[in-house]
Design a protein that fits this description.
Distance between the termini: 70 Å
Mean pLDDT: 92
Number of helices: 15
Largest sheet: 8 strands, mixed
Shape: globular
Structural class: alpha+beta
Number of strands: 22
């Protein structure tokens, strides 16, 4: 038997047609000797029927009945039959094939299934098993309608990307998976070489260096659906291996790159959803994003903006604020309007948020409520009426409004405040569910300075083009991020194309010339052969897909993801390797009975 139609294809116009369907037995029901089966594949579900009274006369009913008894749930089967209209009143309007069914005339068991460890039907009204169980049997989990739709949408998404990039003159070029280990921010996964014992390749954290060298090689419009690897702790939006759209262009400025990406997203949006998307996207500076939203990936779908109060409270006789301000700190406030949130938060709730603020890295949380035209709290006695009135005016406080005040070092306090802002928005149901807000974060710094050691580190990476002299007190970087609903989708920048400037940036972050030569000598050398001005961006496909599909984790949009502990429960990796293989690679492992690898840090030299 050869399949003539998928299980999502048949309609009323097919009534009377002889067909062959092949798929998996999702559900079966016996109604007085008449068997009804929901036959499923990735395209849909069709009801097939074994009715001994209606099968054609030439059919061996007993043989067919015996075959049908072998059809356990999730077995792969093949059936021949005739499309007929369902009995009036039994149509399923929710199913595109719900007006018809297939009367079975022949059947074959292709592969019998063991009893599945969890239900594979539509789980929208049910409860899914825990994630580890689904990841252990991911090949079954992928049969669920929701998982199928995620894989189909992802495939269509990538296809549309390729169409757009080709139409705009980009070349799809693969870069090496086995390369040199270079310090780019995250830990590398390293791969030992058998041919050259004691040496190692690294799996790429990104194709950054290679795509820049492609620009040196005149490949002025490059892209790749790139696989990247980073040995980092797993999170909802992070996996040890992930996929990104990698792109680089020569002879461009930042706006050229941003315009190209906006065009790409508009193209993909139209292809996926049949809708236009508003471009250009809003642009917001790094400082404004931090001071208004407490985040360098601001969620603009709701208000709750911070207001600076540093100047307003600088003369207040409140010891906590005074100590913070004397060390260069800041004070800012958040107004929870009475009609939106303020009246819904009682005194016990305030205490709960104070506790949460501490978990978010804030020293604490000060509050005031506007009542009878005045600001009241347990600390207003430390503020003069004039300062309280100034706070009220600056915050736009009205009757019933609740003010939360945060104070401390600039960056960490705004970051903690941003986490609090998000928690408040979630608790108060202020976040629109079906709104997509794309934003460019621009005007970013080139460096960040550790407040304790004074050591310079890069804000993005050390290949970003500085916008002013490296010896200036503040150095801006020609870098930018694309954000969506409080998530960073990707980072881009103009790159350094002058080899000496590249060396100066490396030195700025503490690398000496010997280290520069050892780690990046080949790359700096390439820049010396007429590297053109260039720049690019990388967008996280997994993260983008999870947001578009409303998933809580990128694991739901990856075919075979690792779990929260970066373990593949499907194949048991990472796993030990046979001693023979290690010997061939001249690798010796350290094994101490009863000691976990986490304990190795406590060993002395002996």
């Amino acid at each position: 038997m050869r399949r003539t139609n998928t299980c999502g294809e048949l309609r009323s116009e097919d009534i009377g047609k002889k067909v062959c369907l092949q798929g998996w037995v999702r559900f079966s029901r016996d109604h007085g000797g008449v068997a009804f089966i929901d036959l499923a594949d990735r395209y849909g579900i069709t009801q097939i029927v074994f009715d001994p009274e209606d099968v054609p006369g030439e059919t061996d009913v007993n043989s067919l009945s015996n075959t049908m008894r072998t059809f356990t749930r999730e077995s792969a089967v093949s059936v021949n039959g005739i499309v007929r209209k369902r009995v009036d009143g039994t149509e399923d309007a929710r199913n595109p094939t719900g007006e018809v069914e297939v009367l079975i005339t022949e059947a074959e068991l292709l592969n019998r299934s063991r009893s599945p460890p969890f239900e594979l039907g539509d789980q929208k009204e049910g409860v899914l098993p825990n994630e580890d169980t689904r990841m252990r049997y991911r090949y079954l989990d992928l049969r669920r309608t929701e998982a199928i739709q995620a894989m189909e949408t992802r495939s269509r998404f990538i296809h549309l990307i390729r169409q757009y990039m080709v139409e705009n003159g980009f070349l799809e070029i693969e870069t090496p998976i086995l390369a040199r280990s270079t310090p780019e921010g995250a830990r590398d996964f390293i791969v030992p070489s058998r041919v050259h014992p004691g040496t190692f390749y690294a799996l790429p954290q990104s194709p950054q260096l290679f795509k820049q060298m492609l620009m040196v090689g005149s490949m002025d419009r490059y892209y790749q659906i790139a696989r990247c690897f980073r040995d980092e702790d797993s999170r909802k939006d992070r996996q040890p291996e992930f996929t990104q759209l990698d792109m680089e262009m020569s002879f461009v400025d930042s706006k050229d790159i941003q315009d190209m990406i906006e065009g790409l997203i508009a193209y993909v949006w139209k292809g996926l959803f049949g809708k236009e998307i508003d471009i250009p996207f809003r642009r917001i500076g790094y400082t404004e994003a931090m001071e208004s939203y407490g985040s360098d990936k601001p969620d603009l779908r709701y208000g709750l903006k911070f207001v600076s109060l540093t100047e307003v409270v600088k003369d207040a006789q409140y010891d906590i604020f005074q100590r913070i301000l004397k060390t260069g700190g800041m004070v800012a406030g958040l107004n929870l309007k009475a009609d939106v949130a303020g009246e819904r938060i009682g005194r016990n709730d305030v205490d709960r948020y104070i506790g949460q603020a501490k978990k978010f890295g804030l020293g604490g949380l000060t509050w005031m409520r506007c009542k009878d035209g005045k600001l009241e709290s347990n600390i207003t006695k430390y503020f003069t009426p004039e300062i309280l009135d100034a706070i009220k005016q600056k915050m736009g406080a009205e009757e019933g409004d609740l003010l939360f005040l945060i104070a401390g070092p600039w960056k960490s306090t705004y970051e903690g405040g941003g986490a609090l802002r998000k928690r408040l928005a979630e608790d108060l149901d202020l976040i629109p569910k079906d709104e997509m807000q794309f934003t460019w974060l621009v005007d970013c710094p080139m460096f960040e300075v550790d407040p304790v050691s004074g050591k310079y580190d890069v804000f993005h990476h050390p290949f970003v083009l500085p916008e002013n002299d490296l010896n200036d007190a503040y150095v801006g970087g020609a870098c930018f991020d694309l954000c969506l609903n409080g998530n960073e989708l990707g980072s881009g920048s103009l790159r350094i194309h002058d080899p000496e400037l590249q060396r100066e940036v490396f030195r700025k972050i503490g690398m000496d010339d010997e280290k520069i030569q050892a780690d990046f000598g080949f790359f700096v050398e390439a820049l010396g052969y007429g590297a053109p001005p260039h720049g690019g961006i990388a967008l996280g496909i997994d993260r983008f897909m999870s947001i578009l599909l409303g998933k809580d984790t990128i694991r739901e949009v990856i075919a075979f993801p690792k779990n929260k502990k970066a373990v593949s429960l499907l194949d048991g990796s990472p796993a030990k390797v046979e001693d023979e293989k290690l010997e061939e690679l001249q690798i010796m492992t350290l094994a101490i009975e009863g000691m976990d690898f986490d304990d190795l840090g406590s060993l002395d030299e002996e």
